């Protein structure tokens, strides 16, 4: 398998961004490429640029992953109310996303809404129970 060799971190970063940008340019409806570019930019600490990529990905096909990623960015910015908005929107697309329910519960607890947090955790446990029963 081919393993690219990089002379330094800057060269590696530029090449990765070049590949991601090329993938986006080759197929402007490739929401996954925009999403991956966003995650890569987030890993570099380029939050605003990552946010643009996640929004671009969502604009293409209204996918739950992009909204989830936007929620994660808001947690990094400590804007929990906005993060809750994004995670709640993600749940409208994938209502059985147990991990998202758990994150919402945590954020609701932080925001002082313990009853809703408890309700969300109970819902997450029911989803987990359904998964376990299907495996039996």
Detailed description of the structure:
With 136 residues, this protein is an all-alpha fold. The chain has helices at residues 9-26, 31-43, 47-61, 64-76, 80-93, 98-110, 114-135. α2 (31-43) runs antiparallel to α3 (47-61) and α5 packs antiparallel against α6. The mean pLDDT is 92.
Features:
mainly alpha, 136 residues, 7 helices
Percent in helix: over 70%
| Multimeric status of the protein | single chain
User: What is the tally of beta strands?
Assistant: 0
What is the distance, rounded to the nearest whole angstrom, between the alpha carbons of the first and last residues? 40 Å
- Poorly predicted spans: none
Mean pLDDT: 92
Order of helices and strands: HHHHHHH
Q: Return the structural class.
A: mainly alpha
- Strand fraction: under 5%
Largest sheet, in brief, is: none
Shape: elongated
Write down the Rg. Answer: 18 Å
Count up the helices.
7
């Amino acid at each position: 398998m081919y393993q690219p060799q990089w002379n330094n971190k800057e060269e590696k970063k530029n090449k990765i961004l070049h590949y991601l940008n090329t993938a986006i340019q080759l197929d402007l409806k490739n929401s996954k490429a925009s999403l991956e570019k966003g995650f890569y930019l987030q890993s570099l600490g380029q939050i605003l640029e990552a946010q643009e990529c996640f929004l671009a990905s969502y604009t293409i096909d209204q996918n739950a992953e992009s909204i989830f990623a936007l929620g994660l960015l808001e947690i990094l910015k400590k804007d929990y109310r906005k993060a809750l908005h994004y995670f709640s929107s993600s749940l409208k697309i994938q209502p059985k996303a147990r991990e998202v329910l758990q994150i919402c519960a945590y954020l609701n607890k932080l925001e002082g809404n313990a009853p809703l947090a408890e309700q969300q955790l109970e819902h997450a446990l029911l989803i987990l129970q359904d998964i376990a029963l299907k495996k039996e």
